[in-house]
Design brief:
Distance between the termini: 63 Å
Number of domains: 2
Number of strands: 3
Largest sheet: 3 strands, mixed
Oligomer: single chain
Strand order of the largest sheet: 1-3-2
Number of helices: 20
Shape: globular
CATH architecture of the largest domain: Orthogonal Bundle
Order of helices and strands: HHHHHHHHHEEEHHHHHHHHHHH
Strand content: under 5%
CATH topology of the largest domain: Neurolysin, domain 3
Radius of gyration: 23 Å
Bound molecules: zinc ion
């Protein structure tokens, strides 16, 4: 047996353990009775410890070394060379982390949650601030363990977006800010171009769920290898090549959109369903990074399903399900209602244009926190300054300010950048799709999504985790990650809706 075969066998065991944990997680979010919390925490901790111990063992290190010699000379993109390269990167990262630190971070997250909830109830940052101090401390400890040169933030970004740095993101996000801030101010002066009162009408939740499931099946989400359930926070979880599940939420209005949440998660789901089986049960199985994964969910949610072409196809069908609620609407008016741009305080409710600004604000604040130029106690003030500067909004309280996201309850920092990267990468892919599939818009207008899904399967999903985000973007779109494609996309789409010329 070759070292590579032995390595694959061990990595398959690690993957099985991780997925067993993922089943426990999925069950916790969708089915488990409240009394199960303590048992479930123990089970998850045990499975997590076993898979971590197995993966970080010396044996894996030795096998990696021997397998590295066996695959020397194989092409960079080959399964064998990629498996050794990617596993080695992750093994080195994982072994650098002291087990105690990993445990302490997990425990701190669990302990911080009640304080975060209490701070939210009273909209009082000072209640959460001591926990936030620990989040920053642990993030710094994590950065030290990984090692960094220019900024400790680099180490945290490297964990979720391999190959990207703080300085690179500063450049990219600076360009975005310069383009978006004036765009939002100009749009805000013309609200009459996209009235959206229809979104607040009463829509039966069961009917919403039914039509949402029907849509994602049409887009290409495969129910033979997936299912849809309800959860408080929508997510996608992969339990293997044959089992990629999504969840959604539903309210009586459609402003908190069940339809778009379901489509978003199905975009994550179709990514994982498109990864070839040969990569299964190894570190090559999954998305290239959080940002690349978001590029897929946002592609379907925004670039496809918030397009005019999609609503030409889909509005008549939706109007059959909700004839009374949509009686005074047309495909055009409903398309506009779903593309209303309006500065708001809450990130998850933000429209396609202002969403990026919410990410940029958090990036700035996190960077200053970990580099030591901002104190935790001053976060609300920094937040309100950023609100004015980025979104032109008046100061707000902590609940609708820095206490709104759960990300800071659990270390490490750095969890937001993928959302903006996903938007940028998606727009770059769209430009390439329009070259390779010239009839793209007319296909959407008749509900033909197969050619798009095939393109994404071939250019993005087929590679699993073989490439870094930049390598993958370069291969699929013809250039490294950049901001200009998204800026062009937004100027054309929203310039046209709002009658503005950029
Ligand atoms: Zn997502």
């Amino acid at each position: 047996m070759s070292a590579l075969d032995e390595l694959r066998a061990d990595l398959a065991t690690v993957a099985d353990l991780e997925r067993a944990g993922a089943v426990l997680d999925w069950d916790q979010e969708t089915q488990m009775p409240p009394g199960g919390v303590e048992d479930r925490a123990n089970q998850l901790a045990t499975v997590g410890r076993l898979s971590h111990e197995l993966f970080t063992s010396d044996r894996i290190g030795e096998l990696l070394e021997r397998a590295g010699e066996e695959v020397a000379g194989q092409p960079y993109e080959s399964f064998e060379a990629s498996l050794v390269r990617v596993t080695k990167r992750e093994w080195e990262q994982a072994t650098r982390l002291p087990a105690e630190l990993v445990e302490n971070i997990a425990r701190a997250g669990a302990e911080a949650r009640p304080d975060w909830l209490r701070a939210r109830q009273e909209s009082d940052w000072s209640i959460f601030a001591p926990r936030m101090e620990r989040t920053v401390e642990f993030s710094l400890a994590l950065a030290e363990a990984h090692g960094w040169t220019a900024s400790p933030y680099d180490a945290l970004i490297e964990r979720s977006e391999p190959g990207l740095s703080t300085r690179f993101l500063e450049g990219l996000f600076g360009e975005l800010k310069e383009a978006i801030v004036p765009m939002v101010r100009a749009i805000a002066a013309r609200p009459e171009a996209a009235p959206d009162e229809v979104l607040d009408r009463d829509f039966d939740p069961e009917l919403q769920l039914g039509i949402s499931l029907a849509v994602v099946q049409e887009l290409g989400y495969d129910l033979e290898r997936g299912r849809l359930d309800k959860s408080a926070h929508p997510f996608c979880v992969s339990l293997g090549a044959g089992d990629v599940r999504i969840t959604t939420r539903v309210k009586r209005n459609i402003r908190d959109s069940c339809l778009f949440s379901t489509i978003h998660e199905s975009g994550h789901g179709m990514y994982d369903q498109g990864i070839p089986k040969i990569l299964d049960r190894s570190p090559l199985w999954g998305g290239a990074s959080s940002g690349v994964h978001e590029s897929q969910s946002r592609f379907w949610e925004n670039l496809v399903c918030r397009s005019r072409a999609f609503w030409i196809y889909f509005f008549p069908r939706l109007a059959k399900v909700f004839p009374a609620q949509l009686a005074d609407q047309t495909a055009e008016s409903f398309f506009r209602a779903n593309n209303r741009v309006r500065p708001s305080y809450i990130r998850v409710d933000a429209d396609e244009v202002t969403y990026n600004l919410h990410v940029l604000m958090r990036f700035e604040i996190e960077k200053q926190l970990i580099e030591g130029s901002l104190a935790v106690g001053d976060v609300p003030e920094a937040w309100n300054q950023a609100l004015d500067q980025y979104l032109g909004l008046a100061p707000t309280g902590a609940l609708t300010g820095p206490l709104q996201d759960i990300h800071w309850v659990q270390a490490p920092l750095g969890g937001f950048v993928g959302y903006a990267l996903g938007n940028l990468i998606g727009a770059q892919l769209l430009e390439r799709v329009r070259v390779d599939v010239p009839e793209f818009d007319s296909l959407l207008a008749v509900g033909s999504f197969g050619p798009l899904l095939e393109w994404l399967h071939r250019e993005v999903h087929a590679h699993g985790r073989k490439f870094t985000p930049d390598e993958l973007t370069e291969r699929a779109s013809g250039g490294p990650i950049r901001s200009d494609a998204w800026i062009r996309y937004a100027r054309v789409k929203f310039g046209e809706i709002y009658g503005l010329d950029w």
